[in-house]
Amino acid sequence: MSTNGPVTACQICGHSPLAQVLFLGYLPPVNTMRPIGAPHDLESWFPAELLQCPVCHLVQLGFAADPAVLFPPDYPYTSGTTRILRENFAELYREAQPMLKLTAQDLVVDIGSNDGTLLKNFLTGGHRVLGIEPSLTSNLALADGVETWMTFFGKDSAVRISAEKGKARLVTAANVFAHIPDINGIVEAIGSILTDDGVFISESHYLLDLVKTVQYDTIYHEHLRYYSLHSLKYLLELHGFHIFHVKRIPTHGGSVRVYASRSPKYRVRASVERLLALEVKAGLNGDSWAPTFRDRVIASKLKLYALLKKLKTKGQHIYAISAPSRASTLVNYVGLDDGIIDCVLEISGSKKIGKYMPGRGIPVLEESKLYADQPESVLLLAWHIADELMINLKKRGYSGDFIVPLPVPRIVKNDAVAVV
Ligand code: SAM
Prior knowledge:
Elements: E1 5-6, E2 19-27, E3 46-52, E4 59-61, E5 63-64, H1 67-70, H2 83-100, E6 107-111, H3 117-124, E7 128-132, H4 138-143, E8 148-149, H5 155-165, E9 168-174, H6 183-193, E10 194-205, H7 207-212, E11 225-226, H8 229-238, E12 242-249, E13 255-261, H9 270-282, H10 290-313, E14 318-321, H11 325-334, E15 344-346, E16 364-366, H12 368-373, E17 377-380, H13 386-395, E18 401-404, E19 410-412
Parallel strand pairs: 6-7, 6-9, 7-8, 9-10, 14-15, 14-17, 15-16, 17-18
Antiparallel strand pairs: 1-5, 2-3, 3-4, 4-11, 10-13, 12-13, 18-19
Helix pairs in contact: 2-3, 5-6
Bound molecules: S-adenosylmethionine.
């Protein structure tokens, strides 16, 4: 697969043609944000078409954008600012350590290690760690004592890791295994740095959750693939790995943690069969889910637009809360601009403050503006954590109503949010 251009054959099995599930139109890269006040200039927008392979059933994006454009040195995303992610990576360590019985000599390599949030747990546990991260967030990890190489993971870095650090007992890839082009080459590269009894743990946004809760907003160019357990199994087995344990985890609105190894030493747990059976029930081992999903996405867009129109017609001010990557797809697909949403508010310290939303003139500002201005309604762009967000915003003094855009757009009155 070219790392910059249309995807014309399945990224895993090479089958062509692929079937269309949905076309969201053209979208900008979700983490490219212009500074407020900078003149509007030319921007790259890429087609966002969701496709499915009729053979291995991998759901995938129809266009691969250049990774250097998607993950530039000033990539603003930091794992450590999200509580759910911090807790999840701490829990990953608690789950994996007894299973693998890692020793002080064992090396743990994290691909897409970002600010080192995942690896810090292994470092504190007394193991050797190495992060691989192409953006400048690697400096945050280094400042916390997490050895990190500022580079893209691939065949070349795998050779260098083996030569300089030896083989890894564990390789982790959280929210990056769906992001890297040439997936077959990447799985081989991962295999090449593992010890004979080494384990690979991936965490990816999970197709079953995406489909069930209409999470079209997670469709963007960083996500080249939308994994089911079936498609992951197909991919990993092509390279001699077997999946021996899986766990659904709450990150990003529903993800799946998958343990795989080439060693027979790990017995396959019942969790694997259970999840495969659930996917069969939902039709994910075929394409029966696709037309309904498409209809639900379109209905959701129309309903959100109608709801916002009603509030604007009454003269309301609507602010939005938080600018996760997924917010970019939502505002661009639904067609929200600064005439509809005055601003997007982020917590203090976010690297997104002082920028415009990708592809839009909506400014991202600091959250204190919410309590000073008290707009009538706020749109929750991090809707997948809406319950927690509504309580926190109300606790901090916000007295207006909440708009939860997905899966079905709805208004939650401030009075209905119980603060304990
Ligand atoms: N693993 C972290 C987490 O789960 O919070 C960060 C996930 S973030 C969505 C994806 C990260 O992968 C970014 O920090 C990005 O710079 C990095 N990345 C992208 N392509 C990569 C590659 N080929 N090798 C290593 N890291 C990569």
